[in-house]
Every structure is written in structure tokens, then in C-alpha cells.
Amino acid sequence: MKLPPLVENYSSESFAVPRKPTLSKIDTLSRHQKSTSGYVGTAGPGRRIGNWIIKRTIGSGSMGKVKLAIHTITGEKAAMKMIPITPANTKQTVRIQREALLGRVLRHPNICPVVETIKTPTCTYILFEYIGGGQLLEYILANGRLDEGIARLFMIQLLDALRYLHQNLIVHRDLKIENILLTEDLRQVKLIDFGLSNFYSQTDLLQTYCGSLYFAAPELLDAVPYTGPEVDVWSLGVVLYVMVCGRVPFDDVSVPMLHSKIKSGKIEFPSYLSSECRVLMSAMLNVDPKKRIPLEQTSRFPWFKQSSFCNYLSPLMSSSFPGISSIRSSMLKPPFNIKVLQLLHDHGFSSIPELKHELFMAYTERKTTPLVCLYILGIESFAPTLQIPKALPPVHSRY
Ligand SMILES: Nc1ncnc2c1ncn2[C@@H]1O[C@H](COP(=O)(O)OP(=O)(O)OP(=O)(O)O)[C@@H](O)[C@H]1O
């Protein structure tokens, strides 16, 4: 596959002319991943679902195939996931509901939103905004590793997306290079696949291991309970390594050997990497989760200071973190918004009276719980003048 260069008008940190595709260890990325669970809907090309016409397959994952869909009236493109309703498969049901709800309420320029969810008696269809530039993985496979300047700008975008999630008590937990898509102009990255996301708290630790082994933090391999954000930091460290090296930092054909390499945390840095980049990756890929750099401190690293875009990171990172700001928490007051309560209920949450009760308790006790965050995100997403955070500068901008 031949993709155009990532940037045209790129100044001081000039992007190298795209290299020829290189065979690297990144080709082995799918080796240890879960096999497809075989759901795939049978909706063939040309079939109509609601106002959408189904076209070709554009991707696939453990949840099945993803199809391109075109809106019959607006001509808008969407990426459609089709999930048959099987009463027995509750894990999958939770995953779909979570992905549909988060895609519906999260509003961030580097997070792919859900545009519509359609339910039929047999199938749930989730339509995501179509991201036209393909997987970042494919880009790297076709063009080789990224120049550090480009990787830095993508990192700024990804850090900001994670900051937004973590502030809302959400951890992605499946952050990997395949879950990062490029926009059609190849200037922005967007995070997809929130099916494994979860809510975290400092007191109730998470236990489930999920996601891709290559990107999994070492503590997950020992089934050590974890808070949440720190596992996303590790995965983002692996993503950074893949971006600037064109291969994964830990690899082996044998799963036990791969485990021990990840747990050792020994990273081989190619000589072409800047020392600033190595320092950042070492901090993000610290095997001890307590010593691993917290997300909000990453912007202090000299590697980011090499770009004037780091100014975008500092204020974002210094805002009350984790947890929601007092302005946003003031949105939690009775009477509660019925549309948002209905949305939560439709996505697997308890009954509306129970939701009201839980929110009222949080309101009187001034507690920030995952439900409070979702409720506030829901209010923001219904707001007539939706406050979508300003997009960070696209990578072609001069700086
Ligand atoms: N919004 C989108 N725009 C364009 N392509 C998309 C979009 N969402 C998904 N795809 C394509 O479909 C592929 C699979 O999507 P996704 O990772 O969300 O599926 P999944 O079944 O949840 O996968 P996983 O195995 O990672 O859990 C992506 O890698 C991408 O190529």
C-alpha cells in the first residue's frame, strides 16, 4: 500500500522522505493476539440498515468485521460494527454497551466518536465517525518508522486524549498501535476501540488483564491488581517506541519468553534515537508501576520541550488531575437530566430511579464516581453548544 507523505509543509523537525516499506518485527504484532471470536454479522454490501447503506469491509478485530457505511441522505461515511444479539454472551454485551456509550458521550478531537447506534431484534449496529487515513500501524509498515518530530506531535495528541479519559475516571486498557487511526489528511491521530475500557478509582483496584500482550504492562502479566492510568502510560510508552523504531520493544515467538522480556523491562534503543526520547520512554516503560511516570508529568520531559507545541500540553496537564474540575462537577445537581439518565439506562445501567438515587448520594456526599463522570459527560454531549475541546495543532503547522 502506498500512502502519501505524512506532511508536506514541515519545518525545523523535518519529516524524512517516507522510506520504503521495511520488514520489521512489527509485522509479527498479531501473533499473540486473540483469535476472532467469530461473530461477524452477515450484512453484505448494498444492504440497508436504518439510513445507512453497507459497503465494503474496512477492518476486522476480535469483535468481527468493520464495514464502511454511507448515509443515504447526507452521504456521510461511517465505520459500522455489527454485533448479533446473543443472550448468552454477556461479556460481549457489556463490551458493546460500553463502547457504544463511551463513543456517544466522549467528545475529544483525538477520540473517534459514535455517530449512531441502531438496534434490531437480532443485531446491534454501532456507527463510528469514519477515519479515512487507515491504521497508524499500516502507515509505519508502508513508510517505516516515524521521524521523532512527527511522533512527538502524535504523542501530544494521544497524551491529551488519555488525559481527558483519565480525568473522567476512564482507562482505555487496550491502547495499541492498531487502535490508533490517522485522519485522511494524515495530520491527526484518533483513538478507537473502547470496548475494554473501564472506570477506575484509587481505592477499588482493577484486576482484569486485557488488551494486546505486546502493549501490556508487566504487572498485568502477574495479575497484580492495578489502579488504571498507569497501565495506559506503559502502553503509550510501547506505542511511542513503535512509532520511532518501527518495531515493538519486547518480542519473542514464545509467550513465556515474551512475558519475561516484558517483566525485565530491558529495552534496546537504536543508536539513531535522541537521548531525550530514550529518557521519556524509559520513564514510561518503568516496570515498577509506582515509579512509572504519571501521565500528567510526561509533559515536563525535555523531549516535548523541543517543540513549541509543548505549550499545549502544560496547561492541559496541570488542570485538576485526576478528577473533574469544580466547574464541571457543578453540573451534578437535582433535578437530574432525564435524557442522560435514559441514555445510561439504555446502555446497561440500572433503572432510572436507582440512577437518580446513586447520583443524589454522590451529590450530597460531594463524591466523584464513575457514574458522576458519565452523567456529566452525558450532559456535555447533549449541550446545544457542545464544548468540544480545541483540537491540538495538526502536524503540518509550523512551529
Ligand atoms: N472509525 C473507524 N474508521 C475507519 N476504520 C475503522 C474505524 N473503526 C475501526 N476501523 C477499522 O476496523 C479495525 C478493527 O476495529 P476495532 O479495533 O475497533 O475492532 P475490534 O473488533 O474491537 O478489535 P480488537 O481486536 O482490537 O478488540 C480497525 O483496526 C480499523 O482498521
From TrEMBL:
Alphabetical list of InterPro entries matching this protein: Kinase-like_dom_sf, Prot_kinase_dom, Protein_kinase_ATP_BS, Ser/Thr_kinase_AS
Q: Which UniProt keywords apply?
A: ATP-binding, Cytoplasm, Kinase, Nucleotide-binding, Serine/threonine-protein kinase, Transferase
Under the cellular component aspect of Gene Ontology, which terms does the record hold? cytoplasm
The EC category is transferase
Q: Which BP terms from GO are recorded?
A: intracellular signal transduction; microtubule cytoskeleton organization
Span of domain Protein kinase: 52-304
User: Protein name, please?
Assistant: non-specific serine/threonine protein kinase
Q: Which organism does this sequence originate in?
A: Schizosaccharomyces osmophilus
